[in-house]
Amino acid sequence: MEPGEKVLSEVHLYHTCEALSTNIRNSVTRFEIKFPSSDSVQTKNNAEQEAINVDTTEPAEDRTEAEPCLSRLEVDEDGDLILPRCRNSEDKAVITLEHRLATELKDVGEQVWTAALLLCDYILHHKADFSGRTVLDLGAGTGLTTIVAAMTAKTVYCTDVGESVLSMAHHNIELNADLTSSCNVVVRELDWCQDRLVPGKENFGLSESDIADLLLADVIIAADVIYDDDMTDALLRTIQLLMSQGPAKTMYMGLEKRLVFTLADLDIACPAYTHFFEGLFKLQQNGCDGRQLLYSQVDEDLPMYLNYNRTKELEIWKFQSVIPNE
């Protein structure tokens, strides 16, 4: 990319964004989560059984009283339509996020990216793996994955670098407090370029107790963090640091294989993706201070809880540290 050139996530092309009057740089998007209600399967089964048992010799039942949405349309005193709602077989939740639109590469964390939505789908579909856990979100950006993890986890550390993106994440977590009220959500700066976890005195600086808690986290998540080779190298060092201490850990990463034409290959390639897995292979060979590092792609047809364009380039990867003799 050329200096000063900006990029725009395709997520913001498919969702309606509202401009903020209080902050002209930022916009707001509402992400709707749809998931089956606990009784929707039973309702469907009952409906199928009723269809089997229906007596076709009798007149069809008038359902307009049971389902107001099937009755005639009505208008209010101003002549506007009154639209009654049918009973919904799905539970819904809405996450409200403040974010930026087109940004330079250094500020892409202030946008929402597609692999984050895929990771959210994974978390929502595998709640048991996050329930009651301490979760560390690396490169959390706007805080979307933190908020979804906080819907089921005990504690979530939302981490990134920079006052601007951390303030945005903190604000978004407050906006969605109704979804995260049962979880302890902590926003902190975690710099991958440091060779260890360093306490800080700034607004979002790590405390000594934070560092102790982070090392005890048993689940790590990250999404859309593979885009710059230098940052990827720093991320790999951070993964090694975290995986080599505390309890055995599991990490889930959402990423997108970004296809580009490269002069080096004279072909379509995924250089950032390739660089990450080359580094990951070396990390696996070297180990994490005596621990084995395992990784594999999650090959699963996840249901879609959020609305986005899910392509074959979107992937979930699972990493595990294995402590010998455990």
UniProtKB/TrEMBL annotation:
GO terms for biological process: methylation. Keywords: Methyltransferase, Transferase. Residues 39-64 are annotated as: Disordered. GO terms for molecular function: protein methyltransferase activity. The lineage of its organism: Eukaryota, Metazoa, Spiralia, Lophotrochozoa, Mollusca. SUPFAM superfamilies: S-adenosyl-L-methionine-dependent methyltransferases. This is Methyltransferase-like protein 22. GO terms for cellular component: nucleus. It comes from the Eukaryota. InterPro entries: Methyltransf_16, METTL22, SAM-dependent_MTases_sf. Residues 39-48 have a biased composition (Polar residues).
